[in-house]
Write a structure and sequence with these properties.
By secondary structure, the chain is an alpha+beta fold. It has a single domain, classed as START domain (Alpha-D-Glucose-1,6-Bisphosphate, Chain A, domain 4). The chain is built from three helices and seven strands; from the N terminus they run E-H-E-E-H-E-E-E-E-H. It has a seven-stranded antiparallel beta sheet with strand order 1-7-6-5-4-3-2. Strand 5 and strand 6 (103-114) form a beta hairpin. The radius of gyration is 24 Å and the shape is elongated. It comes from Bugula neritina (Brown bryozoan). InterPro entries: PRELI/MSF1_dom (IPR006797), Slowmo/Ups (IPR037365). Residues 1-171 form the PRELI/MSF1 domain.
């Protein structure tokens, strides 16, 4: 079994990053995730939101690895997430369903406010990879670790992309609200002027 860990700081508040995590896919940086279905979503007694999603992905592994494993590139995974708005933590746990008896990939991502800057968000990411009952297991685990490390970089780019989209939408919404407010003020002014110029009966 091989372990992989990583940390990354997003220079954005936790609330923004948490929203972006839900809108991360699809994205142009990592087209490997081709589909997401929400299987269940509920709020527990502590006010935490728990979600279970099915992920449809394409593993970008060498063709000989797919031949050895006996599968094509399309694979399925399970993601369970927990959002705690009080402690400001978002935890996502993902595991592969395809070929799990031979190759298990268990990944955990935790987003929380950065301990030294409340306006930034710290991502702690870890994964365990275990190849069972196959030749060259150590080598295969190394290949998967390299793939995870590469995808982690793409994932962070995708988060920045999603954050940028959220900010653009908020700016557009603010402009629209301002335009509506100004239009309403002008119409109100016209109405008041009309009332002032009309003679009383």
């Amino acid at each position: 079994m091989k372990l992989w860990t990583s940390e990354h700081t997003f220079e954005h508040p936790w609330e923004t990053v948490a929203k972006a995590a839900w809108r991360k896919y699809p994205n142009p940086m990592n087209p490997g995730v081709t589909g997401i279905d929400v299987l269940n979503r509920s709020i527990d007694s502590r006010g935490r939101l728990e979600s279970h999603r099915l992920l449809i992905t394409k593993w970008s592994l060498p063709s000989w690895v797919h031949t050895m494993l006996g599968t094509d590139a399309t694979c399925f995974g399970s993601e369970v997430s927990l959002v705690d708005p009080k402690s400001k933590t978002l935890e996502l746990r993902t595991t592969n369903l395809t070929l799990h008896d031979y190759l298990s990939i268990d990944e955990t991502l935790v987003y929380s406010p950065h301990p030294s800057n409340k306006n930034h968000t710290l991502l702690k990411q870890e994964a365990s990879i275990n190849v069972k009952g196959l030749p060259l297991s150590g080598y295969l685990e190394g290949v998967v670790v390299g793939n995870i490390d590469n995808n982690a970089g793409k994932g962070r780019q995708a988060m920045e992309w999603a954050i940028s989209n959220i900010k653009s939408e908020m700016e557009e919404l603010a402009k629209t609200a301002q335009t509506v407010s100004l239009t309403a003020q002008k119409e109100l002014t016209k109405t008041m002027q009309f009332i002032d110029t009309e003679p009383y009966c």
